[in-house]
Design goal:
The protein is α/β, with parallel strands linked by helices. The protein has 17 helices and 15 strands.
Length: 512
């Protein structure tokens, strides 16, 4: 079809949510509009939901599609969804905005995503209520152990620990936390009604930092029951993830508008990799791969020959480690998987079948695999693939790279595609796997700053990060045909966990 307009309301203002889906659609026949950053909020400060509502009304009048974060529509962002003081009735009233948008523009295709509120297992108020700094671990354990007791799975030791936790969290704090969870889950369930009515065409319910047991798992079961009760299993998917959902829905919408269903063959690096349960998730890796491909509008192929795209999945051999630990000796990575064969296979598929090959780098949590980078550079594959990601959780990575691969499948290579590849290499491998830790242990400490509090978005730390990243790309990524230029570096939430980057690839033909 011709040029389409998609209105996109992100989960928050961080680059992974605000920029990634927008960048993926750049260079295609798609106009993507998004709210100005001035109304999007800032970490714990909620976005201007009234202004956002007005923006939605204006932009959706002539839009073909809407990708909407319900957490931003209701609460002003992902962090405000954990801090708000709204009632269930106020949330229900706010959701009526969706009905208004659909009635004003009946052809508008609405894809939505709405998180189930997470329950971190550590004590920190960086992204949670203030009392989580002192009682977060206790709140998590109370829910975790209570759930196991409810299922008759708790050991005697766990029951004793649950008894010791009674009264550990002051009652006002526990009431506040559980009360907000209750309101949020009612909103989750309310959204399913909009799917049933046909107001929302497709819904993803991502499970942020999920685990098999605990308060979040209990809430998930409530939503799962509601989905089954109203026969909405094919229109409302629930699986691990969060910050990649905008990318996933962008790919799904472009697939639908182009009447395409990509056939994807996933090839894993280890014989046991499919069964690994990634860190921060609640199910075997391959189950999430299937969900991510399905949610983005694709289907699983049984062979590379019949597939439209091949997804190489660089995964652990037995258990997942953090990217910071990847330099230590570990048989699960060195013996029980075969990254060398995976890369050789990808190169073979490109040459033999000329099919798009993308790489989901889920070997580690919170960063890419530096050994994989080395192999890809040796094979001259870095800028010839259909997508790469290796950041944060396994599902964050899967959703991002699957979206890039599917958009590449439709629109082919472009300067924008190369720029996004370079962004992923620079951020996921350069920053997440090397520079972040080095700067946090070095310059941040030397300046008397902290991991969760540096010297502003564009202070001295961001300058140091830029210098370190520049050296990384020169040494590890640039080749005789491609040079990455780092145009901007900033720290979006004034901390070390994430980085904001703008990069561009300069391509050139070497002299012969």
């Amino acid at each position: 079809m011709g040029k389409v307009k998609i209105a996109y309301l992100p989960l928050d203002e961080r680059p992974c949510n605000y920029e990634f889906p927008y960048l993926l659609a750049s260079g295609t026949s798609t106009e993507v509009v998004r709210p100005d950053l001035s109304i999007m909020g800032k970490k714990k400060k909620p976005g201007n939901v009234e202004a956002i509502g007005q923006w939605l009304e204006e932009q959706c009048k002539d839009a073909d599609g809407l990708i909407v974060s319900i957490d931003t529509l209701l609460y002003g962002g992902i962090i405000p969804s954990r801090l708000h003081s709204l009632t269930a009735e106020e949330c229900s009233l706010a959701l009526e905005k969706l009905r208004l948008l659909k009635s004003s523009n009946p052809k508008l295709k609405i894809f939505a995503f709405h998180l189930i509120m997470r329950c971190p297992r550590y004590s920190s108020s960086d992204e949670e209520p203030d009392y989580y700094e002192d009682y977060g671990r206790e709140i998590f354990l109370t829910g975790y152990l209570s759930h196991r007791k409810q299922l008759n799975l708790a050991t005697e030791q766990e029951l004793e620990e649950l008894a010791r936790l009674e009264g550990a969290v002051p009652e006002p704090f526990m009431q506040d936390y559980l009360g907000r969870r209750s309101i949020n889950i009612q909103a989750n369930q309310k959204m399913l009604g909009y799917v049933e009515e046909g107001i929302v065409d497709f819904l993803i319910i991502p499970q942020d930092d999920s685990a098999p047991f605990g308060l979040t798992a209990l809430d998930q079961q409530k939503v799962r029951d509601k989905i089954a009760e109203h026969n909405m299993e094919l229109r409302a998917l629930m699986y691990p993830g969060a910050d990649e959902a905008g990318c996933t829905l962008m790919a799904r919408m472009l697939n639908e508008f182009n009447n395409v269903t990509p056939y994807v063959y996933p090839r894993l690096s280890g014989v046991n990799s499919a069964a690994i349960i990634p860190l921060y998730e609640d199910r075997p890796l391959f189950e999430s791969i299937k969900y991510q491909i399905l949610a983005a509008g694709g289907q699983i192929a049984s062979s590379a020959q019949e597939a439209d795209c091949v997804l190489l999945v660089n995964a652990p051999g037995d258990r997942m480690l953090e990217a910071n630990d990847q330099l230590q000796t570990d048989l699960g990575y060195q013996v029980m998987r075969n990254t060398i064969e995976l890369v050789e296979y990808g190169s073979f598929i490109q040459k033999r079948f000329a099919k798009p090959v993308a790489i989901a780098d889920v070997a580690y949590a919170n960063g890419g695999d530096l050994q994989l980078l080395k192999l890809l550079k040796q094979k001259n594959m870095l800028f010839d693939i259909a997508g790469y990601a290796g950041w944060n959780t396994s599902s964050n990575t899967l959703g991002t790279v699957i979206a890039q691969m599917m958009i590449y499948h439709i629109y082919g290579n472009s300067q924008e595609h190369l720029n996004f590849l370079a962004l992923r290499y620079t951020e996921d491998l350069g920053y997440c796997s090397k520079v972040r830790r080095a700067v946090a242990l070095g310059a941040v400490k030397e300046k008397g700053l902290s991991y969760f509090g540096v010297d502003g978005e564009r202070g001295s730390i961001s300058s140091i990060v830029k210098d370190e990243l520049l050296q990384f790309v020169i040494t590890n990524i640039n080749d005789e045909r491609h040079v990455i230029h780092i145009q901007d570096v900033y720290m979006p939430w004034n901390r070390m966990f994430e980085v904001g980057l703008s990069v561009r690839v300069q391509s050139q033909i070497p002299d012969r």
